[in-house]
Design a protein that fits this description.
By secondary structure, the protein is an alpha/beta fold. It has 9 helices and 10 strands. The strands form 2 sheets. It has a 6-stranded mixed beta sheet with strand order 6-7-8-3-9-10, with helices on both faces.
Length: about 240
């Protein structure tokens, strides 16, 4: 689904050339939930931006869904991807429904069909009664659910998540992780999740790539664990 071949990305920082991503090779399987973990500044978010075509590598090749990602193919390939951000990236002047249908509106899809689809997705993410609510009136967890619903409007094959739970408390974080796992299982969506939080990665990912100073130093398999404790007490008592 995703392949990096000797990918390097450099920036000039204080007149010094820094390899933010340094000769990275990796392969992410279809339908996998793959984690990238590392300290702040390790290069993990840059790797994510390379994957979704936001930036281009200085050296090496990137392949998405079997095709090389470059300036020619990028526009078509990214249509099958979505992004979930740390800060939600919602429009506060629009209500929940208008935020969710925004990708369909940009693609000039039929409005009636888009609304029907959005209602189904909002039900899936647990926000059936919030269609007309404004973003400013929602909790952090509800905002992230809206962002996830929006990401599903295009039925993407790939979803990229950049620290999707860092703005949430622990209990809500687990609920969002459970929702992401449901998306992976029900829609067979490949998910790449970037986090500095090891517990988040261990809760949901089947494999994790450890990024240190721009290098992929280890790739480790992970056992799937029970997630989404029902209460704070359960969270403290669970293993």
């Amino acid at each position: 689904m995703i392949r990096f071949e000797n990918v390097t990305k450099k920036y000039i920082i204080n007149d010094k050339e820094i390899k933010v991503v340094d000769d990275v090779n990796l392969f992410i399987f279809k339908k996998e939930i793959y984690g990238l973990v590392g300290e702040t500044g390790s290069g993990k978010s840059t790797i994510l931006r390379l994957m979704n075509g936001f930036i281009e590598p200085d050296f090496g090749d990137i392949f998405l869904m079997g095709k090389k990602l470059d300036s020619t193919s990028k526009h078509e390939l990214v249509k099958d991807t979505s992004m979930i951000f740390q800060g939600f990236n919602l429009l506060s002047n629009l209500n929940v429904m208008d935020n969710v249908i925004l990708p369909a509106k940009i693609r000039k899809e039929n409005k009636k069909n888009s609304i029907i689809k959005a209602k189904e997705i909002l039900s899936f993410v647990g926000l059936s009664n919030f269609e007309q609510a404004y973003i400013r009136n929602l909790s952090g967890g509800q905002k992230q659910r809206v962002a996830i619903a929006r990401s599903l409007m295009t039925r993407p094959q790939l979803i990229f998540c950049d620290e999707p739970t860092s703005a949430l408390d622990e209990k809500m974080s687990y609920e969002i992780l459970l929702l992401l796992r449901d998306i992976n299982e029900q829609f067979e969506t490949t998910i790449v999740l970037v986090s500095h939080n090891i517990s988040v990665i261990k809760a949901i990912c089947s494999r994790v790539g450890i990024i240190e100073r721009g290098k992929l130093t280890n790739i480790l398999p992970l056992e799937q664990k029970k997630i989404a404790p029902k209460s704070y007490k359960e969270a403290f008592l669970s293993d």
